[in-house]
Design goal:
The chain is an all-alpha fold. It is 73% helix and 0% strand.
Length: 91
């Protein structure tokens, strides 16, 4: 959540997603980034949509949901989602 709230880092991530949404709609995330980075994108969109929901940023939720819908048929990264749900244990 702190990353998304950071004035520079959060704004750069949002701008990157906005630019990505302007790419030819016929291109998949895999065609743009390759398979490994397409998985990373899906994971980060899942994570940041969750963070945006937690801080009540409806505009960000819409942005990240739009990207998930466009590139992944609105499917989230299940691994990332399950990791978010796990309690953080600091040792």
């Amino acid at each position: 959540m702190r990353y998304l709230s950071h004035p520079l880092l959060g704004s750069r991530y949002r701008e990157s997603v906005r630019l990505l949404l302007k790419v030819d709609p016929e291109k998949s995330a895999e065609a743009i980034f390759g398979s490994t980075d397409a998985l990373k994108l899906k994971s980060s969109l899942t994570l940041f949509r969750h963070a945006a929901t937690s801080i009540g940023s409806d505009e960000d939720v819409r942005l990240f949901s739009t990207a998930l819908r466009r590139f992944y048929g609105d499917k989230i990264c299940e691994y990332t989602e399950s990791s978010i749900q796990q309690p953080c244990v600091v040792q």
